[in-house]
Amino acid sequence: MAKQNDGAPSRAPRDGSAYGSALAFAAGAVALWSTNALVGKSLLERHPVSLVQFLQFVGAALVFAAIRLMSQEKVSLSVGLVDARTGLIPILVGLIGLVGTMVLQYIAFASMPVIEANLVAYTWPLMVAAAMIMLATARRPALLAIASALGFIGVMLVISGGRHPSWSEGNVIGYASAFGSAVCMAFYSIAVGRLAASPERLLLPSALIGVVITFLWCVNDAVAWRIEPDLFLGLYLGAGPMGLGYYFWSRAMKLDGGRVAVVAYLTPIASTLLLTLSGERLTVTAAVGAVLVIGSCIAVGTERSEAGNHA
């Protein structure tokens, strides 16, 4: 009994410390992600999406490289470059999660009202909930099913927005891209916690590939390479929401993903509020859809948090 009593108190502080660190990382990611749509909107008003994306991936690659250099993890060439299971799979996950999510999200931002694209792109928690139901890992599948259904009804209301000609105004590409971005982020959130690779090792190669892809995109668009002060905002988008945001989120998911995942659902609330303050407006129909999307995300997040506590 004495040994059990001596050991029990020491475990709680360690668990509490891990949860506190995970919560801090998740909150940092949400704070950075909340500024993504607002800053991206201001840049896309004056610059092509290819240039904005190129600056983002440059900023993200610099952050991931700096974190990698400061990391104490020893690099093993035989493991990182030869073994396909530990080398190629993390790169593939990073490509889908980072490059796929961000490129599709910004195509959506450039193709439709940013406030609507942002709401559709942040339906990835509902997709994670659907995956949990299909994988039979949810504690309350009925609640998740209802919340997900209401959330997707909200997405359709956001898409329709009370404007009948919405689909005929070229927004099909925008909505499809926003939805595709959500699929990529949902996949990344499920996969990242199951990989042994560190976040910087996972994301740095993907960011470098993103730099190459978006540079070729800029060449194809014949972008004028002029240094302007507001382009530093593009580097912020890369270093902040994309770089540190993804790194913080990956660390949080590895430390205690089950309990802190609910924090991510504050992102659409905060980002929509910032966009509204900047002058973006939703129709009444789209606003009802936004309430359904955000409310469903919170319900899904609460279930995941309780599942993490139960585990």
UniProtKB/TrEMBL annotation:
Endpoints of the signal sequence: none
InterPro entries: Diverse_Substrate_Transporter, EamA_dom, EmrE-like
Listed Pfam families: EamA
Location relative to the cell: Cell membrane
Membrane topology summary: Multi-pass membrane protein
TM region(s), chain numbering: 21-39, 51-67, 88-107, 119-136, 143-160, 172-190, 202-225, 231-249, 261-278, 284-302
Nucleotide-binding listed as a keyword: no
Protein origin, superkingdom: Bacteria
Keywords from the UniProt entry: Cell membrane, Membrane, Transmembrane, Transmembrane helix
Residue ranges of domain EamA in the record: 22-159, 173-300
PANTHER family: INNER MEMBRANE PROTEIN YTFF, OS03G0707200 PROTEIN-RELATED
Protein name: DMT family transporter
Species: Mesorhizobium shangrilense
